[in-house]
Q: What sequence folds into this?
């Protein structure tokens, strides 16, 4: 294939049958492998769409500065797009981002401002606040704001959704997707639900993030927030791109199980994918009791594993986290959904016991 430039190669990523890791799951399970994008993540789609929409709206022109708060992947995609289109790229990045990710951003010509991961969003030191401030201080600067810019969702509505629909010949029954800004989940889900409203949308969230609780109760519960390791997954704010009404179930996964699933994808499927891809895979395992052989499950794998060589794919890091006990076997965490099932079973058992006791003493 011959392309005009690297940007023309964004999208049309493969859907790969996961015949080994998912062999005991009673459904056909596929991975939508976004590492095949030139910037090795789904964020190529988002960044390109947001920049080109801003151009179409007359908000930016070459020579301007594009500012963004990013955990790394959007930054890499933006740096690539900015260098191709002639923009200055200025990124505020969480201190949680891996060294590999930071090196990549710099290699692509981006300027990087590192901000403390534990600073609350309203804190002037946070990567959101600093991006906003810089975009106001620098002349001809434009803040893309991927959490609230609905063109993030549109990117996936116009590309990822149609691709998955076509690749599964309309047979997809379950779409499993990590939620960060929510763009990948919401855009794809909206397109798929428009084709077939029965398709189940399963969001994936991290322990330490506020999204699942907000979906379940409508409450922004600060007590849900604590630091966790998976990058890109979950949020400590409610982004405008999460279409909560499209989500049929929201599964929480742990750092540990996500790490083991990512490693298992590499070993068993030959797919060196990122940490949150392990989260999506773990969420498929949470679903398995609900699945049947005719179901077609698509899990979206957001990025490439090379960005995590110092973390998930490094045994020393895994040991430091305490993730390599139990002979490195995956340890199933308990999703809320399962927890509820177990709780209900206990409650029924207890009620039965109570009834029997009352009967015996009456
Ligand atoms: C590695 C990774 N996984 C998942 C996500 C979540 O995707 P989205 O922001 O579209 O919800 C991101 C977003 O930055 C990411 O970088």
A:
């Amino acid at each position: 294939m011959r392309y005009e430039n690297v940007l023309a190669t964004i999208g049309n990523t493969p859907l790969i049958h996961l015949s080994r890791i998912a062999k005991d799951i009673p459904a056909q399970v596929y991975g939508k492998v976004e590492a095949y994008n030139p910037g090795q993540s789904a964020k190529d789609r988002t960044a390109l769409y947001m920049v080109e929409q801003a151009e179409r709206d007359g908000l930016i022109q070459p020579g301007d500065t594009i500012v963004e708060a990013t955990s790394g992947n959007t930054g890499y995609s933006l740096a690539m797009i900015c260098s191709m289109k002639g923009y200055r790229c200025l990124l505020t990045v969480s201190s949680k981002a891996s060294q590999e990710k930071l090196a990549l951003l710099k290699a692509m010509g981006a300027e990087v401002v590192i901000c403390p991961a534990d600073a609350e969003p309203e804190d002037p030191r946070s990567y959101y606040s600093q991006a906003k401030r810089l975009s106001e201080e620098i002349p001809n600067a434009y803040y893309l704001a991927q959490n609230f810019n609905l063109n993030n969702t549109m990117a996936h509505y116009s590309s990822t959704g149609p691709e998955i629909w076509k690749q599964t010949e309309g047979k997809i029954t379950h779409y499993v997707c990590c939620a960060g800004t929510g763009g990948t989940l919401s855009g794809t889900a909206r397109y798929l639900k428009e084709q077939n409203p029965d398709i189940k949308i399963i969001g994936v969230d991290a322990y330490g993030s506020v999204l699942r609780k907000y979906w379940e109760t409508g409450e922004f519960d600060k007590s849900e927030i604590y630091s966790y390791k998976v990058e890109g997954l979950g949020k400590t704010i409610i982004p405008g791109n999460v279409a909560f009404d499209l989500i049929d179930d929201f599964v929480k996964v742990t750092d540990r199980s996500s790490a083991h699933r990512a490693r298992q994808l590499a070993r068993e499927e030959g797919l060196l994918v990122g940490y949150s891809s392990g989260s999506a895979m773990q969420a498929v395992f949470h679903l398995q009791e609900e699945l049947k052989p005719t179901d077609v499950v698509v899990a979206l794998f957001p990025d490439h594993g090379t960005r995590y060589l110092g973390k998930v794919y490094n045994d020393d890091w895994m040991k430091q986290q305490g993730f390599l006990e139990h002979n490195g076997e995956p340890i199933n965490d308990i999703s809320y959904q399962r927890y509820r099932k177990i709780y209900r079973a206990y409650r029924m058992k207890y009620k039965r016991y109570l009834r029997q006791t009352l009967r015996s003493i009456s």
In short: The domain at 6-36+159-339 is CATH 3.40.50.1100 (Rossmann fold).
